[in-house]
Design goal:
By secondary structure, the protein is α/β, with parallel strands linked by helices. The protein has seven helices and seven strands; from the N terminus they run βαβαβαβαβαβαβα. Helix content is about 35%, strand content about 20%.
Length: about 260
């Protein structure tokens, strides 16, 4: 990845370079929030996250054209770091940027539109902290969802679920949910990721499964978006998902030879 794609060529945190936090015996948690034109929700999302000494929040702005970054800068918290990309590079690229500069032992990814409830962070962390899982995925299907999930998304997730079960024997229903937690040891494998748009969500899950990460689905509460609209392009996601699954199918076949 290219540092020159970051505005000013580097990292912003109240106009200072981010330093490595001091860790105690508790694991450090890095929360990565990709941000794109969510000025009405990002402030409340960050304010709702617990202000803990062993927690850092990395907000990666993916070329927003409104006042999203201004809303983040208004929050007076030392553990919030801003990474501003010059151009819109995609959801996955924003996450990968956050991963590159994260210090955490455990990584959490969550959306900036307010649909993910920060109160559920502890639910995602618990199995990992108790060594019951390496990777957890928040599930609207197992929890409570305040809105109607689009039919195309349900069909897509059923398809991904079947393929994931066939290739790696994992059953994850809400496999496109971006509210996740995983051990930082996964980061060293992410250089192989090809899809840096919305297909990233699927590829990261298949990558973790291919590296024998223990994956567990966790019930969460999904809130209704209060403003704005989704930037998802269904045709692009579908193309990405099919290509990703085909790639991992080939990898699986080659590995067996």
């Amino acid at each position: 990845m290219d540092d020159q794609l970051l505005e000013g060529g580097y990292i912003q945190h109240n106009m200072q370079i981010k330093s490595k936090p001091i860790k105690n015996k508790d694991p450090l948690i890095s929360i990565i929030i990709p941000l794109y034109n969510e000025e009405d929700s990002i402030g409340n999302v960050i304010k709702s996250i617990p202000n803990h000494q062993n927690l850092e929040i990395l907000v990666v702005d993916d070329g927003s054209t409104n006042k999203s970054i201004e809303r983040v800068k208004e929050i007076n918290r030392k553990n919030v770091y801003i990474f501003k990309l010059k151009y819109n590079k995609g959801y996955g690229y924003a996450i990968l940027t956050g991963l590159r500069y994260s210090n955490g032992d455990i990584i959490i990814t969550m959306d900036s539109d307010g649909q993910h409830d920060p109160k559920d962070i502890s639910k995602l962390l618990k199995p990992i902290l108790n060594n019951k899982a390496d990777f957890t995925v928040g599930s609207q299907y197992l929890g409570i969802c305040e809105f109607q999930i689009p039919t195309y998304k349900k069909i897509g997730e059923i398809f991904v679920k079947i393929c994931l079960k066939f290739l790696y024997n994992y059953t994850i229903h809400n496999n496109q949910n971006g509210f996740r937690a995983f051990k930082s040891k996964l980061i060293k494998y992410t250089d192989s990721i090809k899809f840096k748009g919305m297909g990233f969500t699927t590829e990261l899950l298949f990558l973790a499964a291919s590296k024998n990460f223990s994956i567990k689905e966790i019930p969460i509460n999904a809130k209704r978006r209060k403003s704005g609209s989704s930037y998802v392009k269904v045709s692009l996601i579908l193309k990405s998902i099919i290509t990703i699954i085909f790639r991992y199918f080939l990898k699986k076949c080659i590995k067996k030879r």
